[in-house]
Fold this sequence. Notes:
CATH topology: Rossmann fold
Distance between the termini: 15 Å
Amino acid sequence: MKLYGVTGWKNSGKTGLMERLVATFTARGISVSTVKHAHHTFDVDQPGKDSYRHRTAGANEVILASGARVALMRELRGAPEPDLEELITQLQPVDLVLVEGYKTARHPKIEAHRQETGQGLIALGDPTIRAIASNANVPSDRPVFVLNDTNAIADFIWQDLTK
Length: 163
C-alpha cells in the first residue's frame, strides 16, 4: 500500500484537503483508506448505546457491525498509543492510505497551510514534507500549490509515489 500524509497546524485546511483528495483519488479508480491522528480524547460511541455500555463496562475491544460498516473500538486503558506503522497493518489492502496529522512520522507528506492561522511553515525543518498547499504565496524550495487546487495536488502526490 502506498502511504502519503497531509499535515499542518490546527485550522490549516488539513481535513478539507483530505476529504477532497479522497474524493478525487476514488473518482480516478484508486482505492483509498485514511488514518487520522487526534491529539485529544475522542468518542465515536454514544452514551446509552449498547456498544458504549459494553466499552464503559470494561471491554478491551468492542466491534460494532452491520450490513453497512464495521467499527472496532479499542480501549488503551493506560497502554501506549499505537504508532502509525502498527495501525496501518490493521487496514485492509488498498492502493493508497492517506494520513492526516502524524507530523513527526517519517512518511512523505504535503503541508496544508493557511496564512490566517499565523503559524509558520512546518516544511522549513522537515524534509518529509514534499510540497505545500497554501492560500498564500509562501517562499519554499519545494512545490507550492493553491490549497484548493485538489487535482494538481493529487497529481503531484501520485507522481511522487510512483516515481
